[in-house]
Known about the structure:
By secondary structure, the protein is α/β, with parallel strands linked by helices. The chain is about 40% helix and about 15% strand. It has helices spanning about 1-5, 40-55, 85-95, 130-145, 160-170, 190-195, 215-225, 240-250, 260-270, 280-290, 300-314, and strands spanning about 15-20, 30, 40, 60-65, 100-105, 150, 175-185, 230-235, 255-260, 295-300. Strands 1-4-5-6-7-8-9-10 form an 8-stranded parallel beta barrel, surrounded by 8 helices. A hairpin with a 7-residue loop joins strand 2 and strand 3. Helix 4 crosses helix 5 (about 160-170). The longest helix has 18 residues, at about 130-145. The chain is globular, with a radius of gyration of 18 Å.
Amino acid sequence: xxxxxxxxxxxxxxxILPAFVREGITEPVPIQAMPGVVxxxxxxxxxxxxEAVEAGVSGIMLFGVPADGKKDAAGTAGTDPDGILxxxxxxxRAEIGDELVIMSDLCLDEYTDHGHCGVxxxxxxxxxxxxxxxxxxxxxxxxxxxxxxxxxxxxxxxQVGVVRDALDTIGKEDVAILAYTAxxxxxxxxxxxxxxxxxxxxxxxxxxQDPANLRESMRELALDLEEGADMVxxxxxxxxxxxxxxxxASVDVPVAAYQISGEYAMVxxxxxxxxxxxxxxxxxxxxxxxxxxxxxxxxxxxxxVAQKLADARD
Length: 314
């Protein structure tokens, strides 16, 4: 009876798998703060993409981790056509073609030696306009590599418009933009910093949003749509379900939410201690995100959950 009258249902097609690929490794590297998640080799990334397709997952969001010594102040590894992310996009596209929507993180933080999402000025502050020039270059090399969707995540003013223009200039009008519309300065990013080998010292409060604010997110939403965003996202997901619900009720474009590393780690840690039922907690958190209005959910459990949903149908 519960199943028959359920108002909200999860489906494998709702899910997007975030995945990390690291340059120069021959075996996957476990991420200590995220049990079950790894920095992939190029080969294991291809396998993970194929498994996601088999499970019915809709998309994969790729994050590149450059080899030691390849970071610099301008994050040039991020715009190198042969940089790890661009190579990974080509690998995955060759492996699964168009059977999975291939998305890419469009940000400099993985590639800068200071760990910020942009270029710094002489006073050590993020230079918004100089950063936008780098984002335009990143969008073009990612598009040339074969990505279907770019995800500008650095929260620079005007980033969506600049990326749209950069893509259109090279004839990549069909490459879509998933705007990180409401990306909050959150304590829950901690494990992600390990996952991408972040060099960050300090914080990103000058360009990520204040967790206390909702109206700010709605202004960002209006700007992103005006600049040409094809989809919009709220990140993190769990602590910001009210923001997610308001965004979803306000737009007619697809809405995504990112269940981030800290959200994942809390459930895994509590389950390991025997304090909660792991599977029930996973499905409850994802159902809550779906109920709040997300049509697409980025979650590190994507393939596992999709497989379990398929098994339940069988």
